[in-house]
Structures are given as structure tokens and as C-alpha cells.
């Protein structure tokens, strides 16, 4: 039987994550295949996108990639959570640690999934204090300590995330994807089977021709195959998520500076600003709605709030939404070619990893074994995943702010019905894991562990409802109180032992 050929169009983060997962999974499935990445030197990658979620940690672990090498080669830093500033109202800050304390304590039989969160809200105690990442975030520390012999030991079992430069990570993954062919050229023509409509080959602007059996469209906003060839329908989120333009810039980090271990998401007059530290600089940007602000106005606003001039690196406009069917015939769109929404909860690279891990587990096989039922199933699951991202990000806009036309418009008219429905449900019952059906085979998703800190930070949970749930089970309440207190104590002590974030990064850099 012929060796099947899997072709990935695009060598950005999505292309290389896809290449990595597909190649490794084909090997595990014992499918003797060729994998090619079409990576044109003429078209740059998007050049932003530097905060991830815990899914990246899952990805590194699943594929046996050494984390310390990853830090050294990519300039990555830890991301333990997000610092949300000025969202609820100006001057109000809350943190979203990404670890889940429920993971380390066996719940008493019959306890609801989030009983520690429910207890925290009922007792009016800050949820972040019972997270290991809570005190680490406040003190800019790494989830590692140094042993007397100088080696590093991980504190706690929690999955962390990273900040990084996507171009360096692309190169790093390329270096780890042994046996993948690379073709330098822009896809300028597509050949298809007249009977089935399947893609059979690509023509590059160099004149080269690449025949293939299965194709991944990782061409970013160009959407070269999935839209230009297949005209896939678009589900727009532009109404409820009006932030649609970005003004990226960098700020320096000096060699001896301390480095935060969080993404800073700082609400502004018509959107919000991100600040993401890598080892050598802050990648920053103002993502705003151009219904309310011009690029010139955005630059002036940033310079005013930072009190310094900035050098704008580009002006990026994006469409907010997702493809209705990212998998059509023998083409799957992954990454920016498949969906995008403002990077508030770092859902993009996360989505790519989860989608490709799901695809590899459930559907990947020899091309002739993948069926229409597989496509429909994958498209449904991924559609739900991205709709959940939309609803979660939209929830961040249910705030008290009414100080600019943007904030007044968003709170009055741009809250999606599903966001309202979920919030109304959580007025009657505290959020539970069962509110989020698992369509992703247990792969990381936006569930209660990420919702609670945001809902608490925005003041959207009801203490009386939490109290009633706790009062219904006094033994559980006592257990939750004792657990909360012991976790706070344990994590304060662990933070005392933890290395400073910058010190950790220097230690790893200096390793032989
Ligand atoms: C303002 C902004 C901020 C972001 N912040 C975050 C964040 O904090 N966290 C996060 O997870 N994500 C973020 N993202 C998204 C993140 O950047 C992307 O998910 C990630 O970089 C993957 O991009 P990609 O590989 O899909 O596309 P790209 O990086 O654009 O790569 C596309 C590839 O396709 C190739 N290509 C294009 N056309 C053709 C063609 N005709 N033929 C052949 N090849 C072609 C290009 O050369 C390139 O190699 C952000 C995005 C934006 C716009």
C-alpha cells in the first residue's frame, strides 16, 4: 500500500504544532506516512501570540519534551495566571490563577465538583488564597524550588502555562519534528478530484507541485484552502466581541529585572492592553474596537497611560468568529485559519493544541478511513469548544464600567444570550463542572477552574446562594473550611521556598 502523504500548509505556531502532533501520532498508530510542511519564507507569520494556557504544558509532557530545554531555547517564561486590571471598575484588580485546588484533595462522597470554591464564596474568603498559584502570582515566583544539591524540584502537581515568542517556538518545534519535509513556497494553485472534490495536490509559486492525501490549512488569516478553495461558512462573533484590531509594540526587560509570572490584561477606553513578558522583553499590544477608536487614537492613549512613547510594530485587523465546518473533505483548518477571538484568555494556541490532540486521538488514520461521520463529529465538538471560548470572553464584559462609549455600548447591547443564560443559571446555583459537557475527551477546556476567579473578580456570584448550598451539608462545610485553611497554610509555606521567577529563568539558562 502507498505511503499516505499528510501536507500542512503554513509554518506558523499552528502549522508546527500540527506537524508535531500528527507526525508523533502517526508513528504511534504505526502508519508509515510522509508529512510535509509548506512554509513560505515570503509570507511572515502573524508575529504575536505569546500567552498560552495549561494545554501547552500538557502538550510538552505528552510528547516528552524537556521543559528546561524549552525555556532555554525559546526565551519562554511562566504564566501562572492573568492579572485583570480595571475591568470591574477603574482601580479594581483581580487575578485568575490557572491551577485548580480541587485536583489535590479527594472530595467527600456526594460533594459538588466545586465545593471549595462554593465554600470560599460563602465565607467571603478570596479564592486565590487557596490556589498554589495565588501567592506565587503575588510574589512573582516560579513553581519550583532549589534542592540543597542545586537541582530544581517542582512544587505541586499543577499544570502551568507559558509566555513566549511564537517565532522561536515555531523553530523549536520544527527542530523536534524529525522526519518532516519542508517546502518553501506559496500555494498558488490547488488541484482537486472532480468526482469527490478532495484536494489532490498543491502548486507552489516556485513551480513545484506537492501531491497529497490529507491537508491541514494552517495558513493563518490567509485561509488559503478552507475559504479560498472551499468557501467554508463563517460564524461571526463580531457583535458580542467588538474588539477587532490590535496595535502591538514591545517594552524592554533589562537583564536584572524581576519578571512577572502573569499576563497583564489591563482594560482601556475601547478595549484592553496585554503585557506579556518573555525573557528579554514585554510583548504588548492594545486590542481595541475600531467602531470606537482610530489607530492614531489608540497609540495616543497607550502613550498617555504608559507615560512613554512606543514604536508600533503593525496594525492588525481581525475577523472575530469561527468556521462553521473547519473540516471539509480532506482538509482541516487549524489555528487562525479556523477561528479567532481577542486574546483575553489565550484561547488560540490552546484551541490548536486541543483540537489536534482530539483529532489525533479520535479521527486520525489513513486518509481513506476518515469518513463524513468523523468530519461531522469533529466539527460539532470544535464548534462547541470555540463557542465556549466566546461565551467566557464575553462574560468579562459584564462589568460595572460605564465611563466611555465603548463600555456603555458593550454592557448594554453586546452581551450574548448564552452569556446571559449562564449567568442567570449561576444566580440560582453555583457553577459546577456538569455545566460544561465534556466534548473534548477530558482535554483541557475553559471550565469552572477558570470561571470562578473571573466571576468572583467581576462580582457575578451570589454569596447567599453559596451559603445556602453549604448550609445544606454542614459536614461538607466543615471539611471545606478545614481544607481551605490547610491549603492556604501549605501554599504560603511553598511560596516561601519557591525561587523568584527571574532567578529560576537564570538558573535554567545557566544549566550545563
Ligand atoms: C493581536 C493578536 C494577539 C494574539 N495573542 C495571542 C495570545 O496571547 N495567546 C494565544 O494563544 N494566541 C494569540 N494569538 C493567536 C496566535 O498568534 C496564533 O494562534 C498562533 O500564532 C498561530 O498562528 P497561525 O500559525 O495560525 O498563523 P500564522 O502565524 O499567521 O502562520 C501562517 C503561516 O501560513 C503561511 N501561509 C500563508 N499563506 C500561505 C500560502 N498561500 N501558501 C503557503 N503558506 C501560506 C505563512 O507563511 C505562515 O507560515 C494572537 C493573535 C493576534 C492577531
Automatic annotation (TrEMBL):
Residues that coordinate or bind 7-chloro-L-tryptophan: 79
Listed GO MF terms: monooxygenase activity; nucleotide binding
SUPFAM superfamilies named in the record: FAD/NAD(P)-binding domain
List of residues binding FAD: 11-14, 187, 336, 349
Active site location: 79
Coiled coil (UniProt feature): none
Gene3D superfamilies per UniProt: FAD/NAD(P)-binding domain (3.50.50.60)
Keyword annotations of the record: FAD, Flavoprotein, Nucleotide-binding
Pfam family, one: Trp_halogenase
InterPro entries, A to Z: FAD/NAD-bd_sf, Flavin-dep_Halogenase_NPB, Flavin_halogenase, Trp_halogen
Keyword Nucleotide-binding applies: yes
Positions of L-tryptophan binding: 345
Entry protein name: Tryptophan 7-halogenase
Organism whose genome encodes this protein: Devosia nanyangense
Amino acid at each position: 500500500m502507498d505511503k499516505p502523504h499528510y501536507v500542512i500548509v503554513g509554518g506558523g505556531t499552528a502549522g508546527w504544532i500540527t506537524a508535531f502532533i500528527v507526525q508523533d501520532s502517526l508513528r504511534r498508530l504505526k502508519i508509515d506516512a510522509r508529512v510535509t510542511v509548506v512554509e513560505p519564507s515570503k509570507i511572515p507569520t502573524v508575529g504575536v501570540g505569546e500567552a498560552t494556557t495549561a494545554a501547552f504544558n500538557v502538550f510538552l509532557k505528552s510528547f516528552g519534551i524537556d521543559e528546561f530545554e524549552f525555556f532555554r531555547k525559546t526565551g519562554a517564561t511562566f504564566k501562572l495566571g492573568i492579572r485583570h486590571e480595571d475591568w470591574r471598575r477603574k482601580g479594581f484588580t483581580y487575578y485568575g490563577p490557572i491551577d485548580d485546588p480541587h485536583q489535590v484533595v479527594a472530595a467527600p462522597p456526594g460533594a459538588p465538583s466545586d465545593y471549595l470554591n462554593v465554600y470560599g464564596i460563602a465565607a467571603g474568603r478570596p479564592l486565590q488564597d487557596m490556589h498554589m498559584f495565588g501567592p506565587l502570582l503575588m510574589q512573582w515566583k516560579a513553581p519550583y524550588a532549589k534542592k540543597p544539591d542545586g537541582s530544581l524540584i517542582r512544587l505541586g502537581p499543577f499544570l502551568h502555562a507559558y509566555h513566549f515568542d511564537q517565532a522561536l517556538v515555531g523553530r523549536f518545534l520544527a527542530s523536534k519534528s524529525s522526519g518532516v519535509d519542508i517546502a518553501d513556497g506559496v500555494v498558488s494553485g490547488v488541484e482537486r478530484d472532480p468526482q469527490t472534490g478532495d484536494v489532490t495536490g498543491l502548486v507552489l509559486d516556485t513551480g513545484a507541485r506537492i501531491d497529497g492525501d490529507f491537508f491541514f490549512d494552517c495558513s493563518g488569516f490567509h485561509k488559503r484552502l478552507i475559504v479560498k478553495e472551499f468557501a467554508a461558512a463563517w460564524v461571526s462573533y463580531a457583535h458580542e466581541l467588538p474588539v477587532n484590531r490590535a496595535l502591538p509594540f514591545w517594552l524592554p526587560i533589562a537583564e536584572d529585572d524581576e519578571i512577572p509570572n502573569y499576563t497583564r490584561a489591563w482594560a482601556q477606553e475601547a478595549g484592553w492592553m496585554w503585557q506579556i513578558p518573555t525573557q528579554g522583553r514585554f510583548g504588548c499590544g492594545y486590542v481595541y474596537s475600531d467602531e470606537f477608536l482610530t489607530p492614531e487614537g489608540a497609540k495616543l492613549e497607550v502613550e498617555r497611560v504608559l507615560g512613554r512613547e512606543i514604536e508600533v510594530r503593525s496594525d492588525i485587523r481581525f475577523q472575530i468568529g469561527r468556521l462553521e465546518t473547519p473540516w471539509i473533505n480532506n482538509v482541516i483548518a487549524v489555528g487562525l485559519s479556523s477561528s479567532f477571538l481577542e486574546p483575553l484568555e489565550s484561547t488560540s494556541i490552546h484551541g490548536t493544541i486541543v483540537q489536534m490532540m482530539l483529532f489525533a486521538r479520535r479521527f486520525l488514520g489513513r486518509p481513506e478511513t476518515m469518513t463524513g461521520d468523523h468530519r461531522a463529529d469533529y466539527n460539532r465538538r470544535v464548534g462547541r469548544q470555540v463557542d465556549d471560548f466566546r461565551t467566557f470572553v464575553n462574560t468579562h464584559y459584564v462589568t460595572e464600567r460605564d465611563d466611555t462609549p465603548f463600555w456603555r455600548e458593550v454592557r448594554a447591547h453586546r452581551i450574548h444570550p448564552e452569556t446571559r443564560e449562564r449567568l442567570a443559571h449561576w444566580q440560582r446555583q453555583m457553577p459546577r463542572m456538569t455545566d460544561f459537557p465534556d466534548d473534548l475527551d477530558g482535554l483541557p477546556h475553559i471550565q469552572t477552574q477558570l470561571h470562578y476567579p473571573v466571576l468572583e473578580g467581576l462580582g457575578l456570584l451570589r454569596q447567599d446562594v453559596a451559603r445556602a448550598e453549604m448550609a445544606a451539608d454542614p459536614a461538607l462545610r466543615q471539611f471545606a473550611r478545614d481544607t481551605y485553611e490547610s491549603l492556604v497554610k501549605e501554599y504560603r509555606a511553598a511560596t516561601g521556598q519557591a525561587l523568584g521567577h527571574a532567578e529560576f529563568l537564570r538558573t535554567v539558562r545557566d544549566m550545563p
